[in-house]
Amino acid sequence: MIPVSLGRSLPSATGHNLNFFRHYFAKCTISCSSSLHLFSKRAYTSVMIVPTGVGAAIGGYAGDALPVARTLSTVVDCLITHPNVLNAAMLYWPIPNVLYVEGYALDRFAEGIWGLQPVHQNRIGLVLDAGIEEDLHLRHLQVVDATRASLGLPIVEYAVTDTPLKVEMWVDPRSGQSTGRIQHPDSLLRAVDMLVTGSNVNAVAVIARFPDDNIGEIDDYRQGMGIDFLAGVEAIISHLVVKNFCIPCAHAPALLPAPLSVSLCPKSAAEEIKSVSERTI
User: Fold this and answer.
1) Which residues does the chain have with pLDDT short of 50?
2) CB-hemisphere CA count at 13 Å for 272?
3) d(CA 36, CA 192)
C-alpha cells in the first residue's frame, strides 16, 4: 500500500510487504503492508482492532490510535492492526514490528482462515472513479507521479471506472455507525479486474468521488463530537475488492477542501493537511 494523498493515505512501501497464505481451507492468497522482519523463533503476537465509523474515543478520528499502537508494539514481538489505527489522513508512522492488514483480510485472519507471510513488494494499480472532476483527476495522477519519482513506488498502471461509482453515505439509525454504498459496484470490480488481468497488479488503491453535501456531519467530526462519516462506506469499498480478488486494497475519498475552521479538534486535525495541500496547488 502507498501514500496516494487525499483522505486516508496509504502506508509507505519502504518496509516489507506481507502475503496472506492459504491454511488448509483458505481460498486465496493476499498481501498487506509492513516493515516487519522475519523472526527466528515463534513471536508473541497481539491484534489491535478499533471499530470503524462508530466514534471510538481512541481511534475514532484521524490516526489518534497511533500512539497506542506504538506503545503496544514495544511490549509484543508482533502487532497486527488495520488502516483505521495506523493512518492519520496523509500521515503515517511505520513501525518495524507491526503488520498493516486491510479490515476484511483481518477478519479472515481472526477466523483462522488466512495467515500472514512476508513478501518483498507489491505491484500496485490505481482505480479512479469516473465521477471525479477533470482537475481533481489530474491532481491525483500528479500525486502518483510524485510517489514514483520521489519514493520509487511501483505504481504500474491506473484505470478509470466505466461509469461513476456514485457513493452514498448515511448513519445507521440502530447502531449509530456510519455506513453507505456505491450504486455501481460492478464498475469498480471491472476496473480492478482490468488491472489484475492486464497489468498483473497484486495490490490496488481506489479513489472514489464522495459527495460534498454532508458538510454538517463532517463538521461535527472535525470538532471531535461526531463519528467519521466517511469511514463506513470506505470500509465497504475496500472489503468489496479484497473479498472478490483476494488482493489488498486501500481507499481514499476524493473531496473538495473543507471550509476553514477556527476551532478544530486535535484528534481530527490531520485531515486538514489534505485541505491545505489542495488549496496551495
Assistant:
1) 1-26, 276-281
2) 15
3) 28
